[in-house]
Amino acid sequence: MDGNSPTARTGNIIENNDRFADAYSGFAQNRFLWGDWTVTPGVRVESVSYQRRNNLPDGKQGQSSLTEVLPSFAMTYMPIDEATLFFDMHRGFAPPRVEDSVYANGQSVEIGAEKSWNYELGVRSQPMAGMKTELTYFRNDFDALTVLGTVGGNDTPVAQGKALFEGIEFMNRIDAGEMFNWEHNPYLQIAYTWLPTAQSTSPFQCMPLSDGTVSPACPGGNVAGSESGKRLPYTPEHLLTATLGYSHPNGFDAHFETVFVADQFADFRSLNSGADHPNGANSPAALSGQYGKINDYVVVNFSTSYKVQKELTLYVSLKNMLDNTYIVDRVRGILPGSPRLVQAGFKYDF
């Protein structure tokens, strides 16, 4: 529904449709053990079909389907009890959403699934009681990565291209109670992702509709500003989550969590602000909120819980407890992060 002002509560209905998706999947794998080595090959099959029907007066409808066979391979080596080396690779697959595959006017988009080859190499270790650590190198090489098209309308074309993501993940947790054999357990956990490589390895091409037409928003058939070698939008280089907490065997737990997300671009042109848009600082595109850098931000959360008895747990949580205002998305215009949110309740296990 489109309103006539930013605070409108009524407006014109622009979309009213039914979306259907049927998905079937199956997998098979086997684990081979040779001393300290474990090898696990496998295969997965995914089949998805889509249908979308427009309930507005024109009654348009369309459908699409796809099937994929996806191999995988994993291997671990445990030379000592305190450490495990691991490697795995698999064929990545993600089907398009119904609204991206079939438009409201009934035309289908000639788009396939996202496909990638994904690799991990790392080590998990527990060097001493109360300490766990993991270090992983990852590489995600996309033959087809889908971007845009998330609004579900004809004005934002779906596009696909090749991309490479490469980086390191690190996790460390220390439980002082287990380390020093204390009843009280102060603990610290850090999870960090470094993503130095997140680049296009080909221009992202707008997908044609079933009648062969391509959106006029795609000059030369490609997303404006897309080119090989550029860093992709929505790919912050640094992500960090640090947790400091305390737990007790009587069932009490409380912890603070700090989340840091580095700055990132929101469009393929890598514009610092909407005012830099080539259409001009006062153009509708520049003022839409869809263009410009998303600044880095920090969010602090707090959570506590108490296990009253085996089946009953009480909890209280504060998300964004400092009530910071920050941008998380520009696809539909500026989307702010959640304001301070307080939740309290209980969980009962039957």
Question: Summary?
Answer:
This protein is mainly beta and 350 residues long. 4% of the residues lie in helices and 53% in strands. It is built from 3 helices and 17 strands.
Task: Explain what you see.
The chain is built from 3 helices and 17 strands. About 2% of the residues have low confidence. Strand 11 and strand 12 form a beta hairpin. It is globular and about 70 Å long. The chain has a 15-stranded antiparallel β-sheet that branches. It has a two-stranded antiparallel sheet with strand order 15-16.
Give the low-pLDDT segments. Answer: 149-154
Strand content: over 45%
In CATH, the topology of the largest domain is named Maltoporin, Chain A
| Mean pLDDT score | 88
Number of strands: 17
Question: What is the radius of gyration computed over CA atoms, rounded to a whole number of angstroms?
Answer: 24 Å
SSE pattern, N- to C-terminal: EEEEEHEEEHEEEEHEEEEE
The major β-sheet equals: 15 strands, antiparallel
Q: Provide the domain count.
A: 2
Q: How would you sum up the global shape?
A: globular
Helix content: under 10%
How many separate helices? 3
Please describe the structure with a list of short key phrases separated by commas or semicolons.
350 residues; mainly beta; Maltoporin, Chain A; 2 domains; 15-stranded antiparallel beta sheet; two-stranded antiparallel ribbon; 17 strands; 4% helix; globular; TonB-dep_rcpt-like; TonB_rcpt_CS; receptor; cell outer membrane; TonB-dependent receptor
